[in-house]
Specification:
The chain is of the alpha/beta class. 35% of the residues lie in helices and 23% in strands. Helix 1 packs parallel to helix 6.
Length: 191
Amino acid sequence: MKKLTGFKTKTAVFISGAGTNLKNLIRFSYNNNSPISIDLVISDTKKAKGLMYAKNNNIEEIIINFNNQNKSEKKIINILHKREIKLVCLAGFMKILSKKFLKKFKGKMINIHPSLLPKYKGLNTHKRALENNEKFSGCTVHYVASKLDSGKIIMQKKTNISKNDNVKSLKKKVLKIEHKLYPEAIRKIFA
């Protein structure tokens, strides 16, 4: 992905929850050498706590009800095109997007996942890593593909799992490295 000289790439972040990665990406976007600007936040629920980060930073936020996925995705595609969004970052977005939708944004949509893919795709990653007595966990930034958490890996970062770790402590550890990895991976795709 190439960045136009002097311009930041218009980016949308999709969220469903607390939005700590959104908060981190907003902070990153304010750096002079960041290749992106966060221009839009889309959530599938108005209960997403992360929406406050959009509000606090005067970033447009749109809540899309996914009762009818086909209609919802058409609406999102129109919004993204109208706002000239060139990159979509999924950050804890809990909806699976259709192949049709993904085709429109092939190579322009990335996700952060709380495991060292290809291990532990989907949900409950920390619990599964602990149950399998893994020595390491971590996170992965990857391109979004039609198969869940199977897109081409951009970057990974790992952390040790200690004997005392539980789901909560491991989640906290991984989230900390997610906040470092997501900006690094974005820089890498624009390099």
